[in-house]
Amino acid sequence: xxxxxxxxxxxxxxxxxxxxxxxxxxxxxxxxxxxxxxxxxxxxxxxxxxxxxxxxxxxxxxxxxxxxxxxxxxxxxxxxxxxxxxxxxxxxxxxxxxxxxxxxxxxxxxxxxxxxxxxxxxxxxxxxxxxxxxxxxxxxxxxxxxxxxxxxxxxxxxxxxxxxxxxxxxxxxxxxxxxxxxxxxxxxxxxxxxxxxxxxxxxxxxxxxxxxxxxxxxxxxxxxxxxxxxxxxxxxxxxxxxxxxxxxxxxxxxxxxxxxxxxxxxxxxxxxxxxxxxxxxxxxxxxxxxxxx
Length: 293
Description:
Mean pLDDT is about 90; it is low at about 285-293. This protein has helices at about 1-10, 25-35, 50-60, 70-80, 100-115, 130-140, 155-160, 170-180, 215-230, 240, 250-260, 270-285; strands spanning about 20, 40-45, 65-70, 85-90, 120-125, 150-155, 180-190, 195, 200-210. It contains twelve helices and nine strands. It has a seven-stranded mixed sheet with strand order 4-3-2-5-6-9-7. A two-stranded antiparallel ribbon has the order 1-8.
């Protein structure tokens, strides 16, 4: 079917855009099952391809906005989804799109389509591998408006998302995602399930977002800066990695306040530890943040 639709519109998979379409309906159903959609939910889909997953989503929720960067696929989607009155296709790059505006539109469309059955706003996506990490970071910036995210990611990226402190895979992406929500992995999808076949295995990932506290909101920029610095050069001790944030004495004071050893490396710290450091540095910078968590 995929080949026939592409041929009909004079298209072929674009390797530069990481186009690997899900060709196995069983795996489509697995993704939808993990998403756990309800009738009143609104969904943001990223990279709908020719609309196979889009159709599955549209039958289970109130409203779907599918964002596709490829102009040719947008033409194909207009045909394959023309009978779906609760689907809107947007031709755009998810990395530059005004997400706040789109999420607001989904909220409005969802309410209009299911006023009697209010639901949540969710993200479901077969993310192209080359944008997986930046797309996740962008989505996490808007987590207060997103109930959950389910997406296919390269197996190695999924391992990074679910990594534990001290492990090789633990890094800035892990801390950012774990800070924003609860991460669960729901099994792998083999290359044979796609057309064309990628060279790697994919994993179904779900992130159930958490609404940040008021303190977490205030600390977010500093928290993010500390995490990025801590992992910019993984082998650096934290006292050196974070030296740009304060003078030596103040730096040592912040670590004492957070009850952390400045000789540790970033990979040894949990999300709670990074939050404690952010609060301690926040106090040093007179941000009126309570250092007690």
